[in-house]
Design brief:
Blueprint lengths: L20 H34 L2 H34 L4 E4 L4 E8 L2 E8 L7 E4 L8 E2 L13
Antiparallel strand pairs: 1-2, 2-3, 3-4, 4-5
């Protein structure tokens, strides 16, 4: 499930899926291991890229060509795994904001508009929301969990 090119935060009907707080929290037990795996794969990818970057062209021609090929294979493997994991998250209508932090946003109806329920690895449940254009720095605590329950959770 991909977001339309420009979903309108003021028109919930332009969003392919909206989540209630209960629906989003219920998904965390499945998403946390996936996001942990993605974070580990990205760390491994970053490491393999850095090691490959340290192999100069002269080193590759001087007995390290096999090392370079192995690193290129690792990079390809991790890139594919990460892409598949991202598709799995995004395919559910969830936005993956930062793999390193395991940061995701769930579009949710709130007072006739769409906001994001914001969660990252390490948090036990969703406790924050922010405006679509505000980002992580604009996180606000959910006053009452019932407030984010409004809407049909399409």
């Amino acid at each position: 499930m991909e977001l339309p090119a420009n979903p309108d935060p003021n028109d919930p009907a332009t969003w392919p899926r909206l989540f209630t707080l209960s629906e989003a929290n219920a998904l965390l037990s499945r998403l946390a291991p996936l996001l942990s795996r993605l974070r580990a794969e990205k760390a491994a990818l970053d490491d393999a890229r850095a090691r490959l970057g340290r192999l100069t062209p002269a080193m590759r021609g001087n007995g390290h060509a096999a090392d370079a090929m192995e690193l290129e294979g690792q990079i390809d493997h991790y890139a594919r795994e990460i892409a598949a994991g991202i598709r799995e998250v995004v395919g559910q209508g969830i936005e993956l904001k930062d793999i390193d932090r395991g940061l995701i946003d769930f579009p949710s109806p709130r007072d006739g508009r769409v906001v994001y329920l914001c969660w990252h690895l390490g948090e036990s449940r969703i406790r924050y929301w922010h405006e679509v254009d505000a980002g992580f720095g604009g996180r606000q605590p959910l006053e009452e969990e019932g407030n984010a329950e409004a809407g049909d959770g399409r």
